[in-house]
Design goal:
about 170 residues, single chain, about 5% strand, mainly alpha
């Protein structure tokens, strides 16, 4: 018998390690793909003082500090936009997605919470409606950069989907 869904307070250790593995460690800030913003450490786009600058160096300890900060922000994104009971595995998958795509901003950028159109994302709408399987499936639609699928994103989204559905740990 599966335990009931509950309001999850934080990312699990396995979820945090999963994000670190997906992002990989980069000691020098560079765009992960042409046309993207520079990232360093474990996918951080911001240093302590503002946007990550191309060429900025991030040692492993600082990378872990930035990872913890960014993961906490992704937790808050999920909790704010989808305040519904979840299994830990679902929460971990959504935090990983939010870490990678951000919350979104009406008129500017699609994201976990909101689309450029100003409407809530389909994933959030499904969660709020109690369609947990449908919300997990929405993870798969976030595998594109500038409208084109990227193999690395497709692989990551498939893994997040499997985690969300309880097919992997």
């Amino acid at each position: 018998m599966t335990s009931p869904r509950m309001l999850v307070a934080s990312l699990s250790a396995a979820g945090l390690i999963g994000i670190a593995i997906f992002e990989g460690y980069a000691p020098v800030a560079t765009p992960p793909v042409p046309g993207d913003v520079p990232t360093a450490g474990f996918g951080s786009t911001r240093s302590e003082t503002g946007p990550m600058r191309a060429g900025e160096r991030v040692d492993p300890v600082r990378g872990l500090i930035l990872l913890a900060r960014d993961a906490s922000e992704a937790e808050r994104i999920v909790q704010r936009c989808a305040p519904v009971p979840m299994y830990q595995r679902e929460f971990d998958a959504y935090v990983s997605l939010a870490y990678n795509i951000g919350p979104g901003r009406a008129g500017v950028k699609d994201g976990f919470c909101v689309l450029k159109s100003g409407q809530p994302s389909t994933l959030v709408r499904r969660l709020l409606a109690g369609d947990y399987a449908g919300a997990c499936a929405e993870i798969l639609s976030w595998d594109k950069f500038k409208g084109k699928p990227l193999r690395g994103l497709t692989n990551r989204r498939q893994d997040e989907y499997r985690r969300c559905m309880g097919e992997s740990q």
